[in-house]
Automatic annotation (TrEMBL):
Domain Nucleoside diphosphate kinase-like: 12-149
Names of required cofactors: Mg(2+)
UniProt binding sites for ATP: K20, F68, R96, T102, R113, N123
Protein name, entry field: Nucleoside diphosphate kinase
The keyword Ribonucleoprotein is annotated on this UniProt entry: no
């Protein structure tokens, strides 16, 4: 069959990607969505959202001891973000590659941060760093009813 083989759990790998407030204000939403679409990943969830402080703290709880944590929470809550769930084989690691290094000055040209940002505290985008965190973050940012299970007609042209 040409239909994509889902994971044993019944779905493809998923990652949580978010255009941060600077990316929204700078009009980079379309460009960023475009890069994931063109790569061949499947959009399963998408919304614009003003993040409350408690959610920002929960999302970044692993970093709460870091000196930049208060600034990070302020940054993420400083304006609306665009929340996305992307699906596809190896999407967690691949999204991290498309995004580039945390510090945009160290990010390779061709990556989102490498092409579109200069400061670590204004690095325009988030992507989950593991499959487990992808699931955790999608659960934090999306309700079940906001996630769309669909099979694009294009799938057999993208996945064997
Ligand atoms: N960050 C920061 N200063 C630092 C390191 C990180 O402001 O020295 C911010 C930055 O926005 C980064 C986020 O904290 O994207 C989360 O840090 P992490 O190390 O998890 O990087 P990421 O996974 O986003 O590349």
């Amino acid at each position: 069959s040409v239909v994509a083989q889902p994971r044993a759990e019944g779905g493809l790998e998923q990652t949580y990607v978010m255009v941060k407030p600077d990316g929204v204000q700078r009009g980079l939403v379309g460009e960023i969505i475009s890069r994931f679409e063109k790569k061949g990943f499947r959009l399963a969830g998408l919304k614009m959202f003003q993040c409350p402080e408690d959610l920002a703290k929960k999302h970044y709880e692993e970093l709460q001891e870091k000196p930049f944590f208060p600034k990070l929470v302020k940054y993420i809550t400083s304006g609306p973000v665009v929340c996305m769930a992307w699906e596809g084989p190896g999407v967690v690691a691949s999204a991290r590659k498309l995004i580039g290094s945390t510090n945009p000055l160290q990010a390779e040209p061709g990556t989102i941060r490498g092409d579109l940002a200069v400061a670590v505290g204004r690095n325009v985008i988030h992507g989950s760093d593991s499959v487990a965190n992808g699931e955790r973050e999608i659960g934090l940012w999306f309700g079940e009813a906001e996630l769309c299970k669909w099979q694009p007609e294009l799938t057999p042209w993208l996945l064997e």
